[in-house]
Amino acid sequence: GQSLEQPSEVTAVEGAIVQINCTYQTSGFYGLSWYQQHDGGAPTFLSYNALDGLEETGRFSSFLSRSDSYGYLLLQELQMKDSASYFCAVGAAGNKLTFGGGTRVLVKP
Amino acid sequence: DAGVIQSPRHEVTEMGQEVTLRCKPISGHNSLFWYRQTMMRGLELLIYFNNNVPIDDSGMPEDRFSAKMPNASFSTLKIQPSEPRDSAVYFCASTPRTANTYGYTFGSGTRLTVV
C-alpha cells in the first residue's frame, strides 16, 4: 500500500516563502505530484516530479529525492490567493494517484 | 474545452434512497477516476477506468457502491441504498492514458448529503 505524510497547516505572511514537505512509503513508485485546492473548489494540478531534483514553475517549485522517499513544494513570493490546501500524491501504474492528507496554507497580510 | 463535467453539483437525499452521480470526461482522455473527499479521510480513490474498463475498484467501500463507464464520454457512480456516512464531495477526474505526468483534470465535484 501507500502512505504519505505532510504537515496539516502552515501560516505565513504575504511575500514570504513556504516549504511543504511530503514523505511517502509506497510500492511501485512512479513519481510525486502536487495539487492545489481552494475551499469549495476542485484540486488543480501544479507539478510532477519523476526524477530527483528541482522543477520550477513560476513562483512554485517542487523537489524530489527518491532515495529519501521525500519531496517538497516551495511557494515563493506568497500572495493572498495562495491560501489553499496543497496535496502531495504518489503516482503508480495505470496513472493511479494516492493523495496525502493535505496541508492548509494560510497567507496573512 | 469544457473540462470534466459532473452532475449534479449538489444532491440532498434521504437515507435508503438511490443516488446516481454523473461524469463526462475531457474528450480524448481515456483514464477516468472517481474520488471521494471528506474531512476525516481526505481524498480517497474509489475506482478508476482505462479505456472504459474498470481497472481497480479496491477503494469502493462496499457493495452499495457501483460504477460504470458505458462509453468514452460518460461514467456513473451509484450508491444504493445511501447512508448518512456516504455524505462527502465526490470528484471525477480524467487524464490521457499515455500521459506520464499524473496531471489529472478534476471536475467541480458533487456535494452529496444523505439525511
In the predicted model, the low-confidence regions of chain B spanning at least 5 consecutive residues are: none
**Termini separation of chain A:** 41 Å
- What is the tally of helical segments of chain A? 0
Nearest-integer average pLDDT of chain B: 93
**How many strand segments of chain A?**
11
Largest interface, counted with CB-CB under 8 A? A-B, 23 and 25 residues
**Which percent range describes the beta-strand content of chain B?**
over 45%
Computed CA radius of gyration of chain B, to the nearest angstrom: 13 Å
Overview of this protein structure:
By secondary structure, chain A is an all-beta fold. Chain A has strands spanning 3-5, 9-13, 18-25, 31-37, 44-49, 53-57, 60-65, 70-75, 84-92, 96-99, 103-108. In chain A, strands 2, 4, 5, 9, 10 and 11 form a 6-stranded mixed β-sheet that branches. A 5-stranded antiparallel β-sheet of chain A has the order 1-3-8-7-6, with no helix packed on it. Chain B has 115 residues and is mostly beta strands. Chain B has strands spanning 5-7, 10-13, 19-24, 31-38, 42-50, 53-56, 65-71, 74-79, 88-95, 105-106, 110-114. In chain B, strands 2, 4, 5, 6, 9, 10 and 11 form a 7-stranded mixed β-sheet that branches. The mean pLDDT of chain B is 93.
